[in-house]
Design a protein that fits this description.
The chain is mostly beta strands. It contains no helices and 5 strands. Strand 2 (21-28) and strand 3 form a beta hairpin. The protein is globular.
């Protein structure tokens, strides 16, 4: 799993009714885009994450000029 600053980290809910938790990667702490990542979640909480199998990275969309 590799990511860059600005990508989204999505932790999928593990049980029925539990929503996905989405955050923005604000810092990549591993080498060459590998975990761990510092993530800021929608509720303002910030933490260091080493994603598991229930997690996906959504690439930041580049804006063209």
């Amino acid at each position: 799993m590799r990511a860059t600053k600005g990508d989204q980290l999505v932790q999928h809910g593990r049980v029925v009714g539990q929503h996905d938790k989405i955050g923005e990667i604000v810092e990549v702490l591993g080498d060459e885009g590998n975990p761990p990542y510092r993530v800021r979640f929608e509720d303002g909480h910030e933490g260091v994450c080493s994603p598991g199998p229930d997690t996906e990275i959504r690439r930041r969309k580049e804006t063209r000029r």
